[in-house]
């Protein structure tokens, strides 16, 4: 295949493809590597959800692009149970093929609707797909810094950038640092500036310092909430989620996506409806992640790598101690190399989440407790 001509787009390296060195070091230890780099669940989903995949009878026909009535009603019921939010499952909620494709695609769909605007605002320390979605849409990607409390500093957004903005991304609880945003403040800023606020809430069930919240609690006008079953229900392989909020925007996106052929498979829609009606397994999953966060944070701290349980999500965001600086690369990368070589843990260097993360690593507690115990024993020098 020919290389792009002129200034044609060349996809950058995928952030997690750079972990080969860590993997090689970790695999050398007895017991092998413990992969804490990506937030892919290891625990089983609810048996009823797995059973539902083979009982829908939806294999033959084309399923609704916006989601079946069963799925949309189940998602709406969950929003009401969990957040006290009521909305129309017909006009204010629609399905998506997992939330990542929507995060990456929204700037493109929004720019078709508002071609005079060309800017995507997103947290300076964040999930890389917010920036990549802007790049793929040919937009300006503008970072919004955090204030001293770790939350977005809306006062740092210039009037020029606000006037050009298609949207503002917020993520709460946040990836990678686990901060809890004041979502009502984000909604108020967006409405005051005529900017759509997109709230990625895929970790909402894993809020540790406060009850879970959604931006929809402040009303639907000018906001969109994104939810997924990947983390909540250990169903990353199903690729099922939904977006909800402003009725005009939901209708627009559902129509555009129908033309583009974005459809959650029928059997998956049936299983997703069962998952959104299940709360019991989520309670157990919350307990497991909380225990793993506490145990791994303690193990790191005992190894003179101070770590704290975050306000939300299931990641430890750990700053590299001073002893890891000055080796020719970011101290976060050096800490990542050390954890791979000493503890067999594969972690994500913080630079993948923005320049402010260069001195950090992110550890996802998505391995079984006994594998995390193996990391702890290696750090303590008992193995």
SSE blueprint:
Layout: H1 20-27, E1 34-35, H2 47-52, H3 69-83, E2 93-96, H4 98-113, E3 119-123, H5 128-136, E4 140-144, H6 159-164, E5 165-171, H7 183-193, E6 196-200, E7 223-228, H8 229-232, E8 241-245, H9 247-260, H10 266-276, H11 280-302, E9 315-319, H12 331-343, E10 345-346, E11 348-349, E12 360-364, H13 369-380
Overview of the molecule:
It is a single chain. This protein is of the alpha/beta class and 383 residues long. The chain folds into two domains: 15-44 and 281-380, Aspartate Aminotransferase, domain 1 (Alpha-Beta Complex); 47-277, Aspartate Aminotransferase, domain 2 (3-Layer(aba) Sandwich), CATH 3.40.640.10. The protein is 39% helix and 14% strand. The protein has 13 helices and twelve strands. The chain has helices at residues 20-27, 47-52, 69-83, 98-113, 128-136, 159-164, 183-193, 229-232, 247-260, 266-276, 280-302, 331-343, 369-380, and strands spanning 34-35, 93-96, 119-123, 140-144, 165-171, 196-200, 223-228, 241-245, 315-319, 345-346, 348-349, 360-364. A seven-stranded mixed β-sheet has the order 2-8-7-6-5-3-4, sandwiched between helices. β5, α7 and β6 form a beta-alpha-beta unit. α1 (20-27) runs parallel beside α12 (331-343) and α11 runs parallel beside α13.
């Amino acid at each position: 295949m020919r290389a792009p001509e002129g200034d044609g787009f060349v996809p950058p390296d995928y952030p997690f493809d750079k972990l080969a060195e860590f993997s090689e070091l970790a695999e050398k230890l007895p017991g092998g590597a413990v992969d804490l780099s990506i937030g892919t669940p290891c625990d089983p989903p609810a048996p009823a959800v797995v059973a539902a995949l083979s009982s829908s009878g939806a294999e033959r026909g084309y399923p609704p692009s916006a989601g079946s009535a069963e799925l949309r009603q189940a998602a709406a019921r969950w929003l009401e149970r969990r957040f006290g939010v009521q909305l129309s499952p017909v006009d204010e909620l629609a399905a998506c093929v997992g939330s990542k494709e929507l995060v990456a695609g929204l700037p493109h769909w929004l720019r078709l609707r508002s071609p005079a605007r060309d800017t995507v605002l997103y947290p300076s320390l964040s999930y890389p797909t917010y920036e990549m979605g802007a790049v793929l849409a040919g937009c300006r990607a503008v970072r919004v810094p955090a204030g001293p409390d770790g939350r977005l500093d809306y006062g740092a957004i210039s009037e020029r950038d606000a006037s050009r903005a298609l949207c503002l991304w917020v993520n709460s609880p946040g990836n990678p640092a686990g901060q809890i945003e004041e979502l009502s403040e984000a909604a108020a800023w967006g409405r005051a500036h005529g900017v759509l606020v997109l709230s990625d809430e895929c970790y909402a069930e894993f809020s540790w310092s406060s009850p879970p919240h959604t931006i929809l609690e402040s009303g639907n006008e000018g906001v969109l909430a994104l939810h997924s079953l990947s983390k909540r229900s250990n169903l990353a392989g199903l690729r099922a989620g939904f977006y909800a909020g402003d009725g005009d925007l939901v209708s627009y996106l559902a129509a555009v996506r129908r033309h583009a052929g974005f459809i959650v498979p029928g059997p998956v829609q049936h299983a997703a409806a069962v998952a959104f009606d299940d709360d019991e397994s989520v309670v157990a999953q919350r307990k497991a992640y909380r225990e793993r966060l506490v145990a791994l944070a303690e193990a790191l701290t005992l190894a003179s790598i101070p770590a704290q349980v975050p306000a939300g999500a299931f990641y430890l965001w750990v700053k590299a101690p001073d002893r890891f600086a000055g080796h020719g690369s970011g101290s976060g990368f050096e800490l990542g190399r050390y954890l791979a070589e000493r503890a067999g843990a594969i972690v994500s260097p913080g630079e993948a989440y923005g320049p402010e993360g260069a001195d950090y690593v992110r550890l996802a507690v998505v391995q079984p407790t006994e594998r995390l115990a193996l990391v702890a024993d290696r750090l303590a020098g008992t193995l």
